[in-house]
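This follows on from our talk about sequence and fold. Please put the record directly below this note.
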Amino acid sequence: MTTVFTSTLDADKRLAAGESYDMLIMSSGSIEGHIKDGNSAAGSRVDLAKSCVAVGVKAGSPKPDISSVEALKKTIPAATSIGYSTEPSSIYVISLFEKLGVADAVKSKLKQTPTGVFVGSIIASGEVDIGFQQISELSHFAGVDYVGPQPETVQRYTVFSSGIAAGDKASDAAKALVKFLTAPAAAPAFKKQGMEPG
């Protein structure tokens, strides 16, 4: 089985173009969409792990205070530039700024990465002061100092799930991989990346 790592948007484009697959791992909402469209087998969704959105700064930079909602309200507008990614994190980040009442103040400071580009890359290069992305994609990025997750009261978790292709001849292998990823022995690997198993 060959593994291809790509963004949700790119994966959707590839599937729409007729590219075949044995199993998908995406956000639970995306998997449900593929099941509804008949691309993934009904009942094949299995939740693997959940991840939250975290903050990072360029390595060696002072770490801003994000320990509380009030601290976050001060930290975000104080940044000269802010990086964020494409879905699913982007929807949360924009809604977070609106919820905190800082959306207008930071509108001109926002830089969204192109599809498939990690926010860590524009943090490490110094293009942005501060960046928001899934903890699993940011916490170990080279050239980035991990600050931490958002305060729990304004946090949003994304559940990542697997889905097996409808009519898939390799479904036994795909099911075996799902079994491996959901086994207790796999939990430490998820936790190491800042994700919560299941």
Summary: The beta strands are 23-27, 46-58, 82-84, 110-112, 130-134, 144-149, 157-164, 196-197. The mean pLDDT is 90. Residues 89-100 form the longest helix (12 residues).
